[in-house]
Amino acid sequence: MQNLAGTSPHIVMPSADIRQLIAADLRNLIAQIETSMRLIKTAMTEEEEADQPGSIDVIVLDDVTPRYVTANAALGACKAGLDLALQCLSEFGKPVETGTNSARHTHLIA
Predict the structure, then answer these.
(1) Is 98 helix (H, G, I), strand (E, B) or coil?
(2) Phi/psi at 8 (nearest 5 deg)?
């Protein structure tokens, strides 16, 4: 992926190329968010499995799970916003897939 932070503003690129770069960056962000969401799900599963039911001597105050749920919801909202941003870039052109294997979406990028 190209880093455009150091790109001179005087460089002229065709708008289709710029849209492709933006779309690629958005797809990368979406993939990173999906990875984080999977990690949160894994952490929640591991904590649930670590809890040993049947022990009367242990009281578990589950204050960690709501944080995971809140973080996952925030990431979901971010992903939805990025999906929308990618869709806004879409015009007529060739279809471009976004997301990962779990949820693929097709957007047209000129």
Answers:
(1) strand
(2) -65, 140
The per-residue pLDDT for range 29-86, each reduced to its tens digit, is: 999 999 999 999 999 888 777 766 655 555 555 666 788 999 999 999 999 999 999 9
Structure tokens at 60: 């578990």
Residues 10-19: contacts with CB under 8 Å, at least 24 apart: 15/110, 16/93, 16/110, 19/89, 19/91, 19/109, 19/110
Residue that has been written with the tokens 């984080």 in this structure: 36
**Cβ-contact 30, 86 below 8 angstroms:** yes
| C-alpha span between 26 and 31 (Å, rounded) | 9
pTM > 0.70: yes or no: no
Query: Which of the 8 DSSP states describes residue 50?
Result: H
Burial class (CB in 10 A: 0-12, 13-18, 19+), 26: buried
For the chain, the domains span 32-47+62-110
